[in-house]
Every structure is written in structure tokens, then in C-alpha cells.
Amino acid sequence: MARNSKRASSEPRCIICGGAVDGLEVQEDYVIRAIRWFKRNVTRNAKNYRLVVCKECYVKYKKARDSYVRKQIAYVVIGVLFAGLLIAAGRSLMAVLAGLAIIVLMYLLSLLSYMPALAGKPEQAA
């Protein structure tokens, strides 16, 4: 419980410019939780900033987020196509397992351009 209250009272940081400013809250998803876990347990350097997107960086954020979503869809579709071809050609359990591994690998590659979603709908258009 203390962890949640500490996180709620922590300093806000813009994920684009890195400034300590208020802005639109970033949704905490499995990628951010994994990074926080890594920083807390492995590097022991957890800052627990409240992640936001400031108004000045919103246009740049929106462009990066749209690019990430497009890449994520494209990588998964390509992975499914390769997996389908492999399964059709192999017709064995190993082909199915290799196909699933390809889909997972392609999804993980899409995370190279990761940009988290916002917690709520932004009030401003840009």
C-alpha cells in the first residue's frame, strides 16, 4: 500500500522531453510495470516518476504513438503470415511451435518503437 501512495505523490515527468511538468497521465501497462520491476529489483535505481505527456510535446507524442500502433499491427500480421506458411509447409507439431515462436518474436520486435497509451482522452486536439 505504501508503494501506491508513494507513486501517486511522486514527481511528474514528461516521457518525450523529460521535463518535470504536469500533463496528460500515461497509462501504466505491462511494459511500464516490467521496466519498473527491473529498475526496482535489478538496478535498484527506481525513481517512481508519474509519467505524463506535457502539452508542448503532445503532437510529437501522438505521431510516435500512431507509428507504434501501425508497426505493431504490421509486425504481428507479418508474423502470422510467416507462421501460416511454415505450418502449411511443415505440417507437424514442430512447425506449429516454430510458427508460434515467430509470432512472439515479431510482437517483441514491435516493442522496439514502444510508446505507451494515455490513461484518459485528451481534452485538447493538439
Description:
The chain is mostly helical and 126 residues long. The chain is 57% helix and 7% strand. The protein has a three-stranded mixed sheet, with no helix packed on it. α3 runs antiparallel to α4. The N terminus is likely disordered.
Summarize the structure.
With 126 residues, the protein is mainly α. Residues 1-8 have low confidence and may be disordered.
**What would you call the quaternary organization?**
single chain
Based on CA atoms alone, the radius of gyration comes out at 19 Å
Helix and strand element order: HEEHEHH
Structural shape: elongated
Write the layout of secondary structure elements.
Elements: H1 2-8, E1 12-14, E2 24-25, H2 30-43, E3 50-53, H3 58-90, H4 93-110
Key traits:
126 residues, mainly alpha, 7% strand, elongated, disordered N terminus
